[in-house]
Structures are given as structure tokens and as C-alpha cells.
């Protein structure tokens, strides 16, 4: 664990089993290979070279500046209040989709042009994709027919409202073995998770 403010312009050895936590005020770090990288604390963490992450990137309440370099993530990007900033390339082995109650299902599902409904995002997604849902109230029955991750922006203000239907989320018939992840949601008005 690296704590405090520092700049690393030399070598920093890590492997695909390493967990590196950057949680100081403003930090920069060299390019290279990392196992899991956690961006926390305050301010901005700046890349000083191309970075490959073998597992997951966790963005927790701080910014990661790509600084013109390439960031390759072989796991998932877990956005817990943090964000990517600056120019550069982000390479993922899955697609990310975005939903906002102010979006439209005629949009392309990017962060700039999000979908309106979670159901449409799931329909558009492929196995292994991640769907980020912005704060708001979503009143829909969601049918999950593939392995996806649903990530709400905030567990207190991203709300799935069942409108007393006794059912919000269900999976399709005959789809055992789905890998479904649902995080950071408030489930209200008689939520029931149904696996069919």
C-alpha cells in the first residue's frame, strides 16, 4: 500500500497478483503492469506511461488522468464515485453501457448519450458487459437473459421501484449459469427478485 503524496518516474514492480492502492491527494505513477489498481483519496492520479491492469480497476472518489497514454483493463472498471479524465485510450475486453432517467432508448448508450431504460440497455448488451445506471427512479420490470453487471451510481439515490408489482427483476427461462451482478441500488415498494 502506497500512502501519501508521491511522484514515481522510475521503475515500480508489480505483477498480476499485486494490489496497488493510491489514496493520497494528487499522485502520479509510472506505466507498467498491475494486478488490481485502486484509485482513492482526493484529487487526481496521473499516469506517466501506458498501464495494463490484469484484474480490476477501482475508481473510488478520485480521478484517474490518462494523460495521453493507453490504459488496458483485463478485468472490470468498478466506478465507485471516481472517474477517468484526460485524453488517452481505454481498452476493455467488454462494453460499457449507460442509462439515465433523462436519456432516450434512441441514443447510443454512451455516457454522453445514455439509454433511458435498464431493459433496453440489457437488450443491447452482450454477455460480460457492464451497465452503469445514473441516479434516479426506474419503474420497470427488468428481465435479465444474459450475464451482465448492473451498477447503480449511488445505493441511496439509484432506485428500482416495483410499484407494488411484487417483482422487479426476473431472469429468462432455461438460462441457468448466468453470471449476474447487481450493485448500488435501492429497491423499493415490495421488491422481489425472481429467478425463473
Q: What's a concise summary of this model?
A:
With 196 residues, this protein is mainly beta. 4% of the residues lie in helices and 39% in strands.
Architecture overview:
There is one protein chain. Helix content is about 5%, strand content about 40%. The protein has one helix at about 120-125; strands spanning about 20, 25-30, 30-35, 35-40, 45, 50-55, 55-60, 65, 70-75, 75-80, 85, 90, 95-100, 130-135, 135-140, 140-145, 150, 160, 170, 180-185, 185-190, 195. The strands form 6 sheets. The protein has a 4-stranded parallel sheet, with no helix packed on it. The N and C termini lie far apart (about 45 Å). Residues about 190-195 have low confidence and may be disordered.
Mean pLDDT: 82
Give the helices and strands as they follow along the chain. Answer: EEEEEEEEEEEEEHEEEEEEEEE
Strand pairing plus helix content: what structural class? mainly beta
Walk across the major sheet and give the strand order: 1-4-7-10
Termini, distance in Å?
A: 44 Å
What spatial form do the alpha-carbon principal axes imply? Answer: elongated
Q: Give the amount of beta strand, in percent.
A: 35-45%
- Describe the sheet with the most strands: 4 strands, parallel
Number of helices: 1
* Helical residue percent band: under 10%
Regions with pLDDT < 50 over 5+ consecutive residues? Answer: 190-196
| Radius of gyration, taken over Cα atoms and rounded to an integer in Å | 18 Å
Query: What's the number of extended β-strand segments?
Result: 22
Amino acid at each position: 500500500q502506497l500512502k501519501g503524496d508521491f511522484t514515481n518516474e522510475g521503475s515500480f514492480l508489480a505483477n498480476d497478483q499485486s494490489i496497488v492502492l493510491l489514496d493520497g491527494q494528487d499522485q502520479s505513477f509510472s506505466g507498467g503492469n498491475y494486478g488490481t489498481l485502486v484509485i482513492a483519496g482526493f484529487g487526481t492520479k496521473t499516469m506517466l506511461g501506458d498501464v495494463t491492469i490484469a484484474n480490476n480497476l477501482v475508481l473510488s472518489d478520485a480521478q484517474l488522468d490518462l494523460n495521453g497514454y493507453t490504459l488496458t483493463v483485463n478485468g472490470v472498471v468498478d466506478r465507485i464515485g471516481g472517474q477517468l479524465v484526460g485524453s488517452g485510450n481505454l481498452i476493455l475486453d467488454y462494453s460499457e453501457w449507460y442509462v439515465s432517467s433523462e436519456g432516450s432508448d434512441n441514443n447510443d448508450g454512451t455516457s454522453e448519450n445514455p439509454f433511458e431504460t435498464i431493459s433496453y440497455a440489457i437488450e443491447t448488451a452482450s454477455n460480460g458487459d457492464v451497465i452503469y445506471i445514473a441516479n434516479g427512479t426506474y419503474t420497470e420490470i427488468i428481465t435479465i437473459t444474459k450475464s451482465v453487471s448492473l451498477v447503480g451510481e449511488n445505493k441511496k439515490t439509484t432506485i428500482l421501484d416495483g410499484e407494488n408489482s411484487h417483482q422487479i427483476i426476473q431472469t429468462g427461462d432455461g438460462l441457468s449459469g448466468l453470471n449476474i451482478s447487481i450493485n448500488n441500488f435501492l429497491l423499493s415498494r415490495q421488491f422481489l427478485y425472481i429467478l425463473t
